[in-house]
Design goal:
Layout (H helix, E strand, L loop, with lengths): L9 H6 L14 H7 L5 E4 L6 H5 L6 E4 L9 H6 L3 E3 L6 H17 L1 H9 L18 E5 L3 H12 L3 E5 L5 H6 L3 E2 L2 H7 L2 E4 L13 H6 L5 E4 L8 H9 L5 E4 L12 H4 L3 E3 L8 H19 L14
Parallel strand pairs: 1-2, 2-3, 4-5, 4-7, 5-6, 7-8, 8-9, 9-10
Helix pairs in contact: 5-7
Length: 314
């Protein structure tokens, strides 16, 4: 079963040839999925929610392979309780996300999106954007130092940015070895000129960027989120932007997605918005499809798959 929006299932079908037949669900909503998973031995999952109700309807499932990194839409604990292997694809889009973050850094810093709007409106002066500062020499605050956070840090350093890192599960020595400075989260908020989020969405990180975090940021600083929309208190962010408490924001993820018409973020001039595409390239999509399908193939053939989230079930 797959709920992903690929134009075909040819990649998965080739990997799983002789092991399983790939059937695409006509929709990713729960009601439709419940009607289609009864005979499934494996689930290839994009953004569909997989919890107890869906697993009750799919008693034969042996593996849930996530097309991506985050697992906030999969009840891993419930799958583990049932002895179901869960896999993901960490780092599959690290190059793409890092490039997207750098594009946002440069666009926000240079006011590219604002100048574009001004020129289209007939304004060819420098008044279309706020004051522009040189990027080199500024501070990039990276929250979350996994594969993507490290790729972002490397690119930031190449642009001449000083890199600050907060990740409570990464040793300070590892951060120093990467050429960055480990700092506590409040210090990162206060010192960074660009804050970029690369943490997973958990109970501990939900609305990590709240009103207090935004109040601690410099008025000249920018927030960038290409991780999960739930990491940010969007109401507090809109208020901070409207009150000029921060200079701007670059957002690729939201709650909900898509944002409803008339949402304040859509009306905010200093918010640079993209439609959850930071992960995307032809290469990254090919990689994640292959990795997910190979994980399913491994479980169905009695082998240990790569990137197991809950190895205790094996």
């Amino acid at each position: 079963m797959t709920d992903a929006g690929w134009p075909s299932t040819d990649v998965e079908a080739e990997v799983l040839d002789g092991l399983a037949r790939v059937v695409r669900s006509p929709s990713r909503d729960e009601e439709t999925l419940l009607r289609h998973v009864g005979e499934a031995d494996a689930l290839l999952v994009g953004t569909a929610r997989v919890g107890a109700a869906l697993l009750d309807a799919a008693p034969r499932v042996r593996v849930i392979a996530r097309y991506g990194i985050g697992l906030d839409n999969v009840d891993v604990a419930e799958a583990t309780r049932r002895g179901i292997v869960v896999t993901n694809a960490p780092g599959f889009c690290k190059e793409e996300v890092a490039e997207h973050v750098m594009a946002m850094v440069l666009s926000l810093a240079r006011g590219v999106h604002l100048y574009d709007r001004a020129v289209r409106a007939g304004d060819w002066t420098r008044a279309g954007a706020r004051s522009v500062r040189r990027v080199a020499g500024q501070a990039l605050g990276v929250v979350g130092f996994g594969a993507i956070g490290r790729a972002v840090a490397e690119r930031g350093a190449a642009l001449g940015l000083r890199v600050l890192v907060h990740d409570p599960v990464v040793a300070d020595g590892d951060v120093h070895a990467a050429g960055a400075e480990p700092v506590a989260l409040p210090e990162l908020a206060a010192r960074a000129d660009f804050v970029t989020l690369h943490a997973p969405l958990t109970d501990a990180t939900r609305q990590l960027v709240d009103a207090a975090f935004l109040a601690a940021m410099k008025p000249s600083a920018y927030l960038i989120n290409t991780a999960r929309g739930g990491l940010v208190d969007q109401e507090a962010l809109v208020q901070a932007l409207e009150d000029n408490r921060i200079a701007g924001a670059g957002l690729d993820t939201f709650v909900p997605e898509p944002l409803p018409a008339g949402h304040p973020l859509l009306e905010c001039e200093r918010a640079l918005l993209t439609p959850h595409v930071a992960f995307y390239s032809e290469e990254s999509v090919q990689e994640v499809r292959l990795r997910a399908a190979r994980c399913v193939a491994a479980v169905l053939s009695g082998s240990r798959p790569d990137d197991v989230v809950n190895p205790e079930v094996l």
